């Protein structure tokens, strides 16, 4: 005989409260999203669900119409019965026969979609009562994507729409970060998140944990499940991972929050991959064998580094002011950029208005003849603040000649301050991912490629354009590549910057290295104090595995504007600079070569007579070494070269013997 509604619901509530107070009584299958594949990743976890449903009857619930693929799939895995059940309103969810209709199944599975509709339609209805009754008697409740999200003790309701990582870094109390704990509290001390690495949801989940702490003064734990990955939790609260990705388990220790922004946090992270298990009661990983060890060895430099992905002056004023105030030696400023960068003028004006130092411009070109750039090299030696404004391929330039080699060495000298603006900031480590923004599936198929970096920040892996809304197709590439470098390269830190956020690495008066990450948003900092790890062995295509890892311990921080002392530093031994002297020929010496500069100062035309039998390459450079003119002076010739477009200044005229390469220099004064 059917129990009356009041008594039934009261009994279910009592049983649930009693059982949850001891331990969970039922089974949960948490699927992070992604399509099921017959004969693929989903067979094992969906088989687990069938096996743990005693009567092998599965009800598949959604608020929309569905075909029979999923019911047939469950039957193929051993279900005696599997049916689609459409419940698309509160009225239908609360019909008098709904409890009995659902209670006949020992397994209920919720499809993906919009969790806010599940929450709106099913909370405090016969559907909720049936779910809790089935779970309490040892049945199985499962769900994928939105259908998994509703099984969370503290649930992200999505009542105001989805929340992106960007939202969590902007304001943890924004209208999008909507949490409730009044629906299905199977594990009341956890919040579950889906599509975890695919959608870069590390900052979102930590933001949820911070939001709950801020409003309830309670530290709860988080579990993030990747797409095409399931976390199957049995009646003993042992959860096992099945699939191509990972389960990420976050244990927060503290949060510091100001005006909705996380300024500091401390979250311990564990990751599990296929067939690895975790005890939700004791918060311990069950026995597993991780084959690799990541053990950082600190290598902190005795120079200063600032970096951001931004390059427009209005977005970089804060980092520039920070660098200027931190600069230690007070010598020249070297502004390094690609040729003809339209942003140079704004930066020169800003620097002139905010410093008293001489500003030297270096426009990089690997094709330039660098031997004659003596004045430029001496300017490099006299610079202590170097600003790299979208400089192009620095590594190529460093290997292109004497000036490049000097610049590469100079930026690592004691107490030099370097500022990197634009995508070059991603290259500060020993190596960096070079194709994260090319194909959204590179990390999924294990196709992330790495190139040699600048090696300035050997303990760091940095991505400067991480969680912008325009980057969301690449979140898995971004998230996975930093963790890959931290683990495989034994790095101490991984940093994800977004928008105008920037990092500063400075030296204090006690020779301690100071790390700060600042800007309009909070940022994500990964700390590696040493951990065992192993890449997943599950194949997604042929022999390819995702760039996802199991590891025992990484520490995640979301930070903004907080300074961290990260270690002792010491000056390195270095030789004092020996400045080069230019060999500048007099007019008489030019005459000895058979070449005559017919007029100096020069107004519109540079006039040269070559009475010799030799051909000379002629180049005109600024005193800083930038090439402004290039031609050939034939033997036994009189040539005029138009240079009227050049500003009034001193220049170096270089004559190069085209046979033996010997060079001769003369100063030229250009007037109007």
Automatic annotation (TrEMBL):
The keyword Protease applies. The keyword Cell cycle does not apply. Pfam families: Peptidase_S51. Gene3D superfamilies: 3.40.50.880. Residues 1-24 form the signal peptide. GO terms for biological process: proteolysis. GO terms for molecular function: serine-type peptidase activity. It comes from the Bacteria. Keywords: Hydrolase, Protease, Serine protease, Signal. Belongs to the peptidase S51 family. This is Cyanophycinase. It comes from Marivirga sericea.
């Amino acid at each position: 005989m059917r129990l009356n509604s009041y008594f039934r619901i009261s009994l279910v509530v009592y049983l649930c409260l009693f059982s949850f107070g001891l331990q969970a009584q039922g089974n949960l299958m948490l699927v992070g999203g992604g399509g099921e594949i017959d004969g693929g990743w989903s067979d094992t976890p969906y088989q687990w669900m069938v096996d743990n449903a005693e009567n092998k009857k599965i009800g598949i619930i959604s608020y929309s119409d569905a075909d029979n693929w999923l019911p047939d799939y469950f039957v193929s895995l051993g279900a005696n019965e599997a049916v689609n059940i459409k419940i698309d309103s509160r009225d239908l969810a609360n019909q008098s026969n709904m409890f009995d209709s659902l209670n006949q199944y020992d397994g209920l599975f919720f499809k993906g979609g919009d969790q806010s509709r599940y929450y709106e339609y099913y909370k405090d209805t016969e559907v909720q009562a049936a779910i809790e009754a089935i779970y309490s008697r040892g049945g199985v409740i499962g769900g994928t994507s939105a259908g998994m999200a509703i099984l969370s003790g503290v649930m992200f309701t999505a009542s105001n729409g989805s929340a992106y990582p960007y939202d969590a870094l902007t304001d943890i109390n924004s209208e999008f970060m909507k949490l409730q704990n009044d629906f299905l509290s199977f594990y009341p001390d956890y919040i579950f998140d889906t599509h975890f690495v695919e959608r870069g949801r590390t900052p979102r989940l930590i933001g949820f944990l911070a939001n709950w702490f801020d409003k309830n003064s309670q530290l709860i734990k988080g579990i993030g499940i990747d797409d095409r990955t399931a976390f199957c939790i049995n009646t003993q609260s042992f959860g096992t991972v099945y699939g191509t990705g990972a389960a990420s388990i976050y244990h927060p220790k503290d949060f510091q929050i100001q005006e909705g922004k996380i300024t500091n946090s401390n979250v311990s992270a564990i990751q599990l991959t296929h067939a690895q298990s975790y005890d939700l009661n004791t918060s311990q990983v069950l026995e597993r064998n991780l084959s690799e060890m990541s053990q950082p060895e600190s290598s902190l430099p005795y120079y200063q580094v600032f970096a951001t992905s931004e390059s427009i002056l209005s977005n970089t004023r804060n980092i520039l002011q920070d660098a200027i105030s931190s600069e230690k030696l007070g010598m020249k400023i070297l502004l390094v950029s690609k040729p003809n960068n339209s942003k140079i003028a704004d930066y020169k004006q800003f620097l002139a208005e905010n410093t008293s130092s001489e500003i030297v411009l270096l426009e990089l070109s690997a094709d330039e003849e660098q031997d004659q750039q003596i004045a430029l090299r001496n300017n490099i030696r006299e610079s202590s603040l170097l600003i790299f404004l979208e400089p192009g391929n620095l590594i190529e330039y460093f290997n292109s000649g004497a000036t490049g080699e000097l610049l590469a060495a100079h930026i690592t000298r004691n107490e030099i301050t370097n500022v990197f603006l634009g995508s070059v900031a991603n290259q500060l480590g020993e190596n960096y991912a070079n194709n994260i923004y090319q194909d959204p599936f590179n990390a999924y198929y294990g196709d992330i490629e790495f190139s040699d970096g600048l090696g300035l920040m050997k303990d760091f892996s940095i991505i400067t354009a991480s969680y912008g809304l325009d980057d969301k197709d690449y979140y898995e590439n971004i998230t996975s590549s930093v963790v890959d470098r931290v683990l495989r390269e034994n790095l101490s830190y991984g940093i994800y910057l977004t928008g105008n956020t920037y990092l500063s690495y400075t030296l204090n008066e006690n020779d301690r290295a100071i790390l700060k990450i600042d800007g309009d948003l909070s940022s994500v900092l990964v700390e590696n104090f040493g951990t065992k790890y192993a890449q997943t062995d599950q194949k997604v295509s042929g022999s390819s595995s995702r760039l996802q890892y199991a590891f025992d311990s990484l520490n995640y921080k979301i930070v903004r504007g907080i300074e961290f002392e990260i270690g002792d530093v010491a000056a390195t031994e270095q030789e004092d600079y020996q400045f080069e002297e230019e060999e500048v020929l007099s007019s008489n010496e030019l005459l000895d070569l058979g070449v005559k500069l017919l007029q100096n100062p020069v107004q519109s035309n540079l006039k040269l007579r070559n009475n010799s039998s030799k051909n000379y390459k002629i180049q005109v450079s600024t005193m800083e070494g930038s090439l402004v003119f290039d031609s050939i002076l034939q033997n036994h010739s009189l040539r005029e070269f138009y240079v009227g477009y050049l500003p009034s200044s001193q220049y170096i005229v270089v004559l190069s013997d085209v046979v033996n390469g010997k060079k001769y220099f003369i100063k030229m004064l250009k007037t109007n």
